[in-house]
Amino acid sequence: MPTTCVVGILWGDEGKGKVIDYLAADADYVVRFGGGHNAGHTLYLPSGKLVLHLVPSGIVHPHTVNVIGNGVVVDPVHLCGEIDRLIERGIAVELGRNLLLSERAHVIVEAHRLQDAWGEGVRSGGKIGTTGRGVGPAYSDRCARIGLRLGDLVDPARLDRALANLVEQKNAWFGPAGIPLLDAAAMRNTLLAAGDRLRAGIGDTGKLLRDASAAGKRILLEGAQGCLLDLEHGTYPFVTSSHASTGGAYSGSGLPPHEMRTVGIVKAYATRVGEGPFPSELKDDTGDRLRVAGKEFGSTTGRPRRCGWFDSVAVRYSGAVSGATELVLTNLDVLRGFDPLRVVVGYRLPDGSKTTDFPAFELERLTPEFAELPGFTEDLQQVRRFEDLPPNARGYVEAIERHTGIAVRTISVGPERQQVILR
Ligand code: GDP
Ligand code: IMO
Ligand code: MG
Predict the structure, then answer these.
(1) Are the beta carbons of 362 and 329 closer than 8 angstroms?
(2) What stretches of 245-384 show up as alpha helix (H) in DSSP?
(3) Which one of the ligands is nearest to 20 CA?
(4) pLDDT digits 0-9 by tens, 45-92
(5) Which of 52, 57, 130 gets mutated to test ligand 2 (max ligand atoms within 8 A of its CB)?
(6) Domain 3-105+201-262: which topology?
(7) What percent of the chain has pLDDT over 90?
(8) Among the options 21, 37, 41, 75, which is catalytic?
C-alpha cells in the first residue's frame, strides 16, 4: 500500500509536522492537500526548530518531492517568503524539482484577509477565532466560482479575465460593507510578480501524482488542521473551511480513491486554538499546567492553546470519519507528573441521558464522564521501546486503545525526530 495519509484527529496541532518529517524518510512524494498558511507544522532538526506553514514537511529530506496540491489555498506572497526563509536556513528548495505547485490551487489575496477580519467582526454568534489568513474567504470564492488559481498567475491575459470576475463581485459589496475596494491594477502587478517567481513550480500535480501512484511510488499525504476542524465533520461553525479529514486527501490531491493507510495523529491530551466547543477542556490550574508543560502556544498565531483531557468519544468519532486504522500518540512525555490522568469515556446530555456518540449540536452543554488512571513521574523522552515505558504510562496507552478501539502503533515522547516508540 504505497500511499499513506496522515490526518489530525482533533482540532489541529497534534504533531503532524513531526510525524510527517519522521515518515518522509521513506516517501518519494509528500503532498499537502488542504488548508493554507493557517497551518503551522513544527519540525525539530539538528539545526533547531522549524515551523512550516505551506511548504510540505518533507522539504528537509533531500530525496522527497514536495507537492502543494489543488486543494490548498495559496497566498503566493507568503509562499515566496516561506521559500526565502527556508533557503536562508540552508534548506534546498528548488521549484520544479523538489517543490511543485498545483496550477489548480486557489490563491489567497489581501482582500481575503480583509474579508476574514470583517467576517469575524460582524458575527453576532461570536467569533470563530480564525487565524486571520484569509483562508475561509478564499475557499468561499472558490465555491462561488470567482477565485483565482495559481495557473492564472503565469498568464497575464488569463489573470486579467479571472481578476475581472473577482473584482466585480467583491466590489459590489465591499464598498457598502466598509471593506477597502479591490484595485485590479495593483493586484495584477503583485500577482504577476509572484507568478514569475513561482512559475517553474506550477503545473499539473494531479497527473504527476496519478502517474507516480501507478508506478508504485510512495506517496505521503500531509493533512493540515484536524478532523474536528473539518468543514463538514467538525464542530461547525467553529471549523476551518476545508475538508481536513481523509475525504479531502483525494479531492485535494487529484488522486482517485484507492486503498491507503490512514494514520491519525492525536496528542495524549487535547488542545484547541480559537473558539468553539471543547468538551474535555480544563479551565483550571491543571489546564494551565498542561499548557506550560506542553509549550502549548499556536505555531501560526502564537495564541495560547486551550488544553484538556484526552477525549475517547471525540477520537473514536474522528477515527471513524477519517478511516484511521492506527494512531500516533504524541506528547506522552508531557503528562509526566499529572496524577491522576483522566480520559473522557462518555458524555451526559442536557436531558440526563448518556451517549458515546459525538453530537453535531450543543456540544457546549455536554458533561463529560471520565475514567481515571494512575499517572507517572518518570521522564519518557529517552525511552525508545514500549516495554521500557513505566507501567502506568503503558497502562494509559492501553486504556486509550480500549476506549477508542484504535491501535496506538506509534508513540512520540519528545519533539525531536528520533523521539519515537514503534510498537
Ligand atoms: P501540527 O500542526 O500537527 O504539525 O502540530 P504543531 O507543530 O502545531 O504543534 C505540535 C507541537 O508539539 C510542536 O511544538 C511540536 O514540536 C511538539 N511536539 C510534537 N510531538 C511531541 C512530543 O511527542 N512531545 C513533546 N513534548 N512535544 C511534541
Ligand atoms: P495545523 O495544520 C490549529 C483553527 C483556527 C480557528 C479555525 C478557523 O497547524 O494543525 P481559519 O483561519 O482556518 O479560518 O480558522 O481553525 N485552525 C487551526 N487550529 N491548527 C491548525 O492547523 C489550524 N488551522 C486553523 O484557530 O479556530
Ligand atoms: Mg500546528
Answers:
(1) no
(2) 247-251, 285-293, 312-322
(3) 1
(4) 999 999 999 999 999 999 999 999 999 999 999 999 999 999 999 999
(5) 130
(6) Adenylosuccinate Synthetase; Chain A, domain 1 (3.40.440)
(7) 97
(8) 41
Q: Give the pLDDT of residue 1.
A: 66
User: Which atom from ligand 2 is nearest to the alpha carbon of 273?
Assistant: 26
Confidence band for 215, pLDDT divided at 50, 70 and 90: very high
- Which homologous superfamily is 266-422 in? Adenylosuccinate Synthetase, subunit A, domain 3 (3.90.170.10)
DSSP string, 312-381: HHHHHHHHHHHT--EEEEE-GGGGTT--SEEEEEEEE-TTS-EESS--SS-GGG-EEEEEEE----S--T
Nearest ligand to residue 303 Cα: 2
Backbone phi, psi, residue 92, to 5°: -70, 120
**pLDDT (tens digit per residue) in 338-367:** 999 999 999 999 999 999 999 999 999 999
Nearest residue (by CA) to ligand 2, atom 6, is 130
CA 282 to ligand 3 centroid distance, Å: 20
Starting from the CA of residue 240, give the closest ligand. Answer: 2
Residue for grid cell 453535531: 360
User: Active site includes 13?
Assistant: yes
What's the pLDDT score for residue 125?
81
Question: What does the pLDDT read at residue 222?
Answer: 98
Place of cell 519518557: 380
Pocket-testing residue among 38, 330, 408, ligand 1, by greatest number of atoms within 8 A of Cβ: 330
CATH number belonging to domain 107-197: 1.10.300.10
Every domain of the chain and the residues it spans: 3-105+201-262, 107-197, 266-422
Assess whether pLDDT exceeds 80 at residue 141.
Answer: yes
Q: What is the mean pLDDT of the chain?
A: 97
pLDDT given at position 126: 87
- Does 13 contact ligand 2 (Cβ within 6 A)? yes
- Residues at CB less than 6 angstroms from ligand 1: 8, 12-18, 40-42, 44, 295, 299, 330-331, 333-334, 412-415
Three cell numbers at 264? 491519525
